[in-house]
Design goal:
heterotrimer, A mainly alpha (294), B mainly alpha (384), C alpha/beta (518), A: 294 residues, mainly alpha, 12 helices, globular, B: 384 residues, 70% helix
């Protein structure tokens, strides 16, 4: 029973990571740094709550989140591709923009600087954290499905082949007529939409938006992307690992066995260890972060 | 631009590159450099004003009134100006930190945790120092502690990059979370005053506030760390542009292969630059710990690292530019509070993001446009 | 031109007229012409930088020409795109492979023209297609292997398969043999002849004359962005092609007599200034790039290293300079350089003119004065600071002595012409206190006046009793300056001849790997 509760809690925490990390893999595989996942998630969370509040339908909220995340991603891609600006700088600006816009509209719509009113989600509030409640939430299913789906897209479809080529050797892709910029735009938008779905899940699960509610989850998803060596399945496993660590921390709370801060560090420490190549070096897509001429 | 096209290098034999022929071209190239430096921030400010107008109108206010209030609340009275100076002081440090990294071709996203670590180490030393020691005597110890705290955090990505080629952007981001969690643990588990998120107050070495000499600044947090910031900017410029180490560091940033050829150990410059960058950010922690609250508090550094990137970018990693950009972003931050009665102060968060976005995208664009115009214009000018 | 071929049959496969292509201020093509008949192997020859690759990239749709007309199979295709060119059956094999190393052979082959079954990639069909093409052409590669695991020769086969998979009838190969071993070159010729016999048209970009004679039927020669000659292979000689390639100016250099009187006549009697023994350098992926190189240079001697580029010359020079890890011994005036880093080797008396001016030898955004102390910055200090007054004085002196134009120490090196940039490098390296000079491609991409100036400086160094290691892809330059000539091939020094015996005819077989002595 305890084991089942542990698994359910882990899954619940992992869903936003799974969604955002599959977006992260898509973006980074195409050569665009996934720094912006945090901003997409936050934007998605806010759009989901605002639209759900306005219409009463969580489904409309999800659609709004996808649109919002896609719009932020488009802005990122235009900056990085059309204007050839540094991806890191544009990415940071996008994150700050997401923070600023959500705060501004939180004031504008809900006259609050901390949180929105409560909104309905896919589940009734207080319906628990077990598998039963999770199963009612379509975003849970989407999150689980997204890992095999993005693996399928990346490895089995022409689009995925082009994404992999564009992130590794854009000049080679261009020389055989692959529209490099278009592939990157599409990958960026997909990553924005997926990460925003993660944000929507968070907000609808908590039935409200709170300022800065993603709290670095986008960066954990980025960590999972890198720790999973840019492979959807391995990144998905990394998400589950990170989520299990968090669950453990929650369950251990009060026991003082390990301070919670040290559990928080796990994803980041593992990522640095992977990058430093202590156990099997993580090698990034060769053109990641590079500005290319279209 | 297709400057990396190999054919261009090879065809150099025909030397069609117009050679500059007189001292006047020297002047015109300097003017071009200034144009390249000044135009993007202007474009950015213009765009920020446009976006600001939209937001203000969305909120049903008049842009004119809001901007007037913003200026009055920042540069229009001593208190507001003092707050601008206080905020700018921290941003000068994080801006210089990021700028030093950029000069060496490295992106330090970790200024936030380096700032926090510097402040934390200073506070730690402050808790150990007995009361009654004159501030001037304590200052070197505090400086050293803050520099070591921030420098240690900066050295980690530096060493990992030099040794394993681990990308410093990712490592510094990850390290932000690790260091902040660690400091959170140390503070909340060991050092905090019960029911607060801060340590006990330091007993000696607090720096004087500006209001101690000019009463009009009463209430503002501006303090003597301003002088340290100006000094830091001066040393930064001297080091980069006047010393041999600075010469070598910039060479690594511009052309690592040429630096290597010139006998520079690129790896050691890399880790040293990031360690120095972290140390500068760390010293910035004194502004809060010695100048304002006299203790270390959770979250005092929040946002200062990312704004430091904005400051370095807008200031083009030049000490004077960084100081001006720090004032700009500090004005926006403080201005948000000033206009909060009319429009949400959160508006300035958006404007700051717009400024970064506009500068980042317009720097390459402006360069392209200017060079394109010059090329098709007067032949023999400074087109490359 | 006496040996101009008769105009080819009415509709040639390719007809390019008056092509002009510039990049910013640089004109790579300035009225280039090319006409290739269907079903022939055509060699496009010229020196480095003559504009051959640019012209072929225009043909492949990678660049749009600024002026001129392009016809393929009689159809006007001026300014078409890469995809248009591929669709019309024009395929290009680039000098730097356009392959994605992390994808498999089959994936690389189908990229951009993917085979699908429903929405899914049809891997099996792609692998089958690769296998079929392999069987038909003799270009055998494992379809499922990752490209990064292939040898260079195999990777090139993938490049050719890629174009054939797209139905290429016109195949352009840019310096295809630069990376191949002699047996691989022969295999490539067999494949190309077979493709021609099946009705394909082949354009081969090269600057190696033996290849031209070996495999081509007609030849177009380019020089400085223009087409200067068109001939049939059967009706010409290597000498005639060479004359057309280099033009009169450099042809004079070819004839220029070697004027050196080496003070190091009795080599055994004088202690060598530079002594290299059993030097091995390992390149990317563990491939040996310099193998067991041994030689010595006496005071007052220029040792010239001839050879086709990419045979280990760059790595040899960089290893001596300390820029590359190597095993073996390197001694300067009897002192082992092994444990010394780049700077200490410089201090020990090593001077180095690197071949890559824009990446290595200069920091382009630094001023002329700053570039004139690059590598010696530790000698121009005053405490921690650089001594600006002394740097400026140093710059003024060198600018006037080496006639660097414009004579402005404070402008960025980027704004100078290629020749003047190279003068900065030469001035800097010749003005330091040195015993041994490494000069790699010292006159590449500079104008004739600067070439003569730089040659005079190299002779001067020799006459002052320095040891000079000259590496040049330009055989004429090697012959004009050297007291002894070595040839590198496949990372080895395959020949070492005194100047009196070093003639193009004697060196040729070594340079192409046909013969090896030493």
């Amino acid at each position: 029973m305890i084991a089942l509760a542990f698994l359910a809690q882990t899954l619940r925490i992992a869903i936003p990571y799974l969604l955002a990390a599959s977006g992260g893999v898509m973006s980074e595989r195409a050569g665009l740094i996934g720094l912006t996942l945090e901003g997409y998630m936050l934007g998605g969370a806010f759009c989901a709550v605002a639209a759900t509040y306005a219409t009463g339908s969580a489904l409309v909220g999800v659609v709004a989140a996808v649109v919002g995340g896609g719009a932020l991603a488009l802005l990122y891609a235009v900056g990085a591709i059309r204007f050839r600006a540094d991806q890191v700088v544009v990415g940071i600006a996008i994150n700050l923009l997401a923070i600023g816009l959500t705060r501004f509209f939180l004031r504008l719509f809900f006259d609050s600087s901390s949180n929105s009113p409560r909104v309905p989600g896919f589940t009734v509030e207080g319906s628990g954290t077990g598998f039963g409640a999770l199963a009612q939430n379509p975003l849970v299913w989407i999150g689980i499905a997204m890992i095999p789906a993005s693996a399928w897209l990346l490895y089995r479809t022409p689009f995925g082949l082009r994404v992999r080529a564009v992130g590794e050797h854009p000049a080679a892709a261009a020389s055989v007529g692959v529209p490099v910029a278009r592939v990157r735009y599409l990958a960026a938008m997909a990553s924005g939409m997926l990460a925003a779905l993660g944000g929507a899940y968070l907000a609808l699960d908590q039935h409200q938006f709170t300022d800065g509610m993603t709290a670095g989850r986008g960066f954990i998803a980025l960590a999972a992307t890198i720790f999973g060596r840019w492979d959807p399945v391995r990144a998905g496993l990394a998400c589950l690992l990170f989520a299990a660590a968090e669950t453990l921390q929650i369950q251990l709370q009060g026991s003082q066995a390990i301070p919670s801060q040290f559990v928080e560090m796990i994803p980041y420490v593992l990522t640095i260890v992977a990058l430093a190549g202590v156990v099997g070096r993580a090698v990034a897509p060769a053109a990641l972060g590079k500005t290319t001429v279209e | 631009m297709s400057t990396t096209d190999p054919t261009m290098v090879q065809v150099g034999g025909d030397t069609p590159t117009p050679a500059a022929t007189s001292a006047s071209s020297d002047r015109s190239s300097r003017r071009a450099a200034i144009e390249e430096a000044v135009l993007p921030p202007l474009v950015a400010l213009l765009l920020a004003v446009v976006v600001g107008d939209i937001l203000i109108i969305t909120f049903g206010q008049s842009p004119g009134a809001v901007y007037r209030l913003l200026l009055e609340g920042t540069w229009g009275n001593a208190y507001g100006f003092g707050q601008v100076l206080y905020k700018a002081t921290t941003l000068v440090f994080t801006g210089l930190a990021v700028g030093l990294g950029l000069r060496a071709g490295l992106f330090n996203i970790g200024a936030e945790s380096q700032l926090a670590a510097g402040g934390f180490c200073a506070a730690l030393v402050g808790l150990l120092l007995p009361a009654g020691i004159p501030a001037l005597l304590c200052l070197p110890i505090y400086l050293l502690a803050a520099a070591i705290g921030g420098g240690a955090v900066g050295a980690v990505p530096g060493v990992l990059k030099a040794r394993f080629g681990a990308h410093e952007v990712i490592v510094t981001i990850m390290l932000n979370f690790i260091v902040l969690a660690l400091l959170n643990y140390l503070t909340s588990a060991k050092l905090h005053v019960p029911d607060t998120l801060h340590t006990a107050e330091i007993k000696s070495g607090a720096l004087p506030r500006v209001s101690d000499v000019a009463a009009a600044f009463q209430g503002s947090a501006a303090n003597a760390t301003i002088l340290l910031a100006v000094l830091a900017a001066f040393v930064f410029g001297w080091f980069l542009f006047r010393t041999r180490r600075g010469f070598e560091l910039r060479a690594v940033g511009l052309q690592p292969h040429a630096a290597e050829y010139a006998g520079v150990h690129v790896g050691s410059v890399t880790w040293r630059a990031l360690a120095m960058s972290g140390a500068i950010a760390g010293i910035g922690g004194l502004n809060y710990v010695l100048g304002y609250k006299h203790y270390y508090e959770e979250g005092f550094a929040t946002g200062a690292g990312f704004l430091g990137i904005a400051v370095a970018l807008v200031g083009r990693s030049h000490p004077i530019g960084i100081c001006l950009a720090a004032l700009l972003f500090a004005t926006l931050s403080q201005g948000g509070l000033a206009v909060n009665a009319l429009v949400p102060k959160q508006m300035v968060d958006v404007l700051q993001a717009v400024v970064i976005l506009a500068v980042a995208t317009s720097v390459p664009e402006v360069r392209r446009l200017l060079r394109g115009a010059r090329r098709s214009g007067a032949p023999g000018s400074t087109a490359r | 031109m006496a040996d101009t071929a008769a105009p080819p049959a009415p509709t040639p496969a390719i007809r390019l007229r008056d092509i002009v292509k510039s990049f910013g201020p640089v004109q790579a093509n300035r009225g280039a012409e090319l006409e290739v008949a269907r079903g022939e192997i055509h060699a496009l020859v010229g020196e480095n930088g003559a504009g051959k690759s640019t012209l072929m990239r225009v043909l492949a749709g990678m660049y749009a020409p600024n002026a001129g007309t392009m016809e393929v199979e009689g159809r006007d295709v001026t300014g078409w795109t890469t995809s248009d060119a591929i669709a019309a059956g024009v395929g290009m094999v680039h000098q730097h492979f356009m392959l994605v190393p992390t994808l498999t052979v089959a994936e690389n082959v189908m990229l951009g023209s993917e085979l699908t079954r429903g929405p899914v990639l049809d891997r099996a069909a792609a692998e089958q297609a690769v296998a079929d093409l392999s069987r038909r052409t003799g270009l055998v590669v494992p379809p499922r292997a990752l490209v990064r695991e292939l040898s260079v020769g195999q990777a090139q086969r993938v490049e050719i398969l890629k174009t054939l998979y797209r139905g290429a009838k016109i195949l352009v190969l840019d310096e295809p043999t630069a990376v191949l071993s002699p047996p691989e070159v022969q295999e490539l010729w067999t494949v190309l002849r077979a493709l021609r016999d099946q009705g394909g048209t082949i354009v081969l970009i090269t600057h190696k004359l033996d290849e031209v004679i070996d495999v081509s039927e007609t030849i177009t020669v380019m020089r400085a962005g223009r087409t200067v000659a068109r001939m049939t292979t059967a009706g010409t000689t290597p000498q005639a092609i060479a004359r057309a390639m280099v033009g009169r100016d450099v042809a004079l250099a070819l004839d220029a007599e070697y004027t050196g009187v080496s003070p190091a006549q009795e080599l055994g009697a004088v202690q060598a200034l530079l002594e290299v023994r059993n030097l091995d350098v390992v390149g990317v992926g563990g491939v040996p790039v310099v193998r067991q190189a041994s030689f010595s240079i006496a005071p007052g001697e220029i040792l010239g290293i001839a050879g086709v580029e990419g045979n280990g010359q760059t790595e040899l020079v960089e290893a001596i300079a300390g820029l590359r890890a190597a095993t073996g011994t390197i001694a300067l005036g009897g002192r082992d350089l092994g444990p010394l880093d780049v700077r200490r080797r410089g201090d020990a008396g090593l001077s180095h003119i690197p071949e890559d001016r824009h990446e290595r030898a200069l920091v382009l955004d630094y001023t002329v004065a700053e570039n004139l102390i690059l590598g010696q910055q530790h000698r121009f200090t005053q405490g921690a600071a650089l001594d600006q007054a002394r740097i400026l004085e140093h710059a003024r002196g060198l600018i006037s002595r080496y006639d660097i134009r414009p004579p402005e120490p404070a402008i960025a090196a980027r704004t100078l012409s290629g020749g003047n940039q190279q003068k900065i490098v030469v001035a800097r390296e010749m003005s330091r206190d040195f015993k041994v000079l490494l000069a790699a491609q010292p006159t590449r991409g500079v104008d004739v006046g600067a070439i003569e100036f730089i040659h005079a400086r190299l002779r001067e160094a020799r006459d002052q009793g320095k040891a000079v290691l000259l590496v040049s892809a330009d055989l004429a330059e090697v012959l004009a300056l050297s007291d002894r000539v070595a040839v590198m091939y496949g990372g080895r020094i395959v020949a070492m001849l005194p100047r009196s015996e070093a003639t193009p005819d004697a060196l040729g077989p070594y340079m192409t790997g046909a013969e090896r002595a030493a």
